[in-house]
Design brief:
This is TauD/TfdA-like domain-containing protein. GO terms for molecular function: dioxygenase activity; metal ion binding. The structure is a single chain. The protein has 364 residues and is an alpha+beta fold. It has 10 helices and 15 strands. The strands form 4 sheets. Strands 1-2-3-13-5-15-4 form a 7-stranded mixed β-sheet, covered by helices on one side. A 3-stranded antiparallel β-sheet has the order 12-6-14. The longest helix is centred in the N-terminal third of the chain and has 15 residues.
């Protein structure tokens, strides 16, 4: 690996400057109704447990606005024992924008609403998904660091994941702060990333996690979810901070030779996965809700005994309505994009470049 891709071991002035801006922003917020307790990650600036929301009633606009402020500050918000059911969960999330409808590829929908993604280990009849089935292999991709819906051209902003049924142990969700990860990059890397575009493809991450099962996605799978294209460096929501927009869905960097592209993606993912950027959410109660901003975070599921214990998790996903919402597809030529997006290259014809080590895949 090139010396330019060695991880940085100390915090540069840029992150210290960003932390100072964060603290000034927190101090200048209007008098708040909600109480946020930082989870302690990244000097207390990443992740918070929030109390004071009455989920039994419609969300008043001032409270919704306060949640947005806290989301911009902390990236990940934890709400305990909300008491939400499917309908109330969907109504709550609509306060923040239009919701994605779930594609249901490889896993028929179980929840009562088409806006609820099933992130558990149960099939349509409520039985545990059998090991080595295609649906079971598909779920292994959730154990890779990723960003929800980066594989869609109209990407997402918030995800809100609710616990309906929990296993007795395991199954925590890990989050990584992509703002702090960008801050810590060497100046030479930041300059090199400026303007670069990544191709995100869900079948790439599925192959990384289950290379034998997803060596070749089916025609139905390819048509259902084609690749999408987004810039690698963006401005975090409602701030002046830059953030990395990277995930295990990222297959290649447009315009770069394959080897260099793979090396850069691997470097960025490895850098952003460092423990100093992470916070773990332990699911404690049925009704716990964790909401995160996909535009400035990555996350991954952790293991539990999925053949012995039931885990029912349901997620709403809000469409982004910001300046990067639709990526950069319209700025690319037919030589840059895949045939499924109107381009000239069939990316399924060749091997998928590896961006995760076998040790990482086996640890899922």
């Amino acid at each position: 690996m090139s010396t330019m891709f060695r991880p940085l071991l100390r915090m540069p002035r840029s992150r210290a400057h960003s932390t100072a801006i964060w603290r000034r922003t927190l101090a200048t917020l209007n008098e708040r109704t909600l109480h946020a307790t930082p989870l302690g990650a990244v000097d207390g600036t990443f992740g918070a447990e929030v109390s004071g929301v009455d989920f039994s009633r419609p969300l008043p606009p001032p409270i919704a606005a306060e949640i947005v402020q806290l989301q911009n500050l902390y990236g990940v918000l934890v709400f305990r024992s909300t008491g939400l059911d499917d309908d109330a969960h969907v109504r709550y999330s609509k306060n923040f924008g239009a919701l994605e409808s779930i594609h249901g590829v490889n896993k028929p929908r179980r929840a009562s609403s088409p806006h609820l993604y099933d992130a558990g280990n149960l099939d349509a009849e409520g039985n545990i998904i059998p090991k080595y089935s295609r649906a079971w292999w598909h779920s292994k991709g959730n154990g890779l660091w990723h960003t929800d819906s980066s594989f869609n051209q109209h990407r997402s902003s918030y995800s809100a994941l609710r616990a309906v049924e929990l296993p007795p142990r395991g199954g925590a969700t890990m989050y990584a702060d992509m703002r702090a990860a960008y801050d810590d990059l060497p100046a030479s890397i930041k300059q090199d990333l400026d303007g670069k575009i990544a191709e995100h493809w869900i079948w790439h991450s599925r192959k990384l996690a289950a290379p034998q099962e997803f060596d070749k996605p089916t025609e139905q799978e390819k048509r259902a979810i084609p690749p999408a294209y987004h810039t690698l460096v963006q401005t975090a929501p409602d701030t002046t901070r830059k953030t990395l927009y990277i995930a295990s869905h990222a297959r290649r960097i447009v315009g770069m030779p394959e080897r260099e592209s793979t090396e850069l993606i691997r470097y960025l993912l490895t850098h952003a996965q460092q423990p100093k950027y992470q916070v773990a959410c332990q699911w404690k109660n049925v009704g716990d809700l964790v909401q995160w901003d996909n535009r400035c975070t990555m996350h991954r599921a952790t293991a539990f005994e999925d053949q012995a214990n039931r885990r029912d998790m349901r997620r709403t996903t809000v469409y982004d309505h910001g300046p990067y919402a639709f990526g950069v597809r319209l700025g690319l030529t037919e030589h840059d994009v895949d045939v499924l997006c109107g381009g000239s290259t069939d990316i399924t014809a060749g091997p998928t470049p590896e961006t995760q080590t076998q040790e990482q895949v086996q640890a899922l």
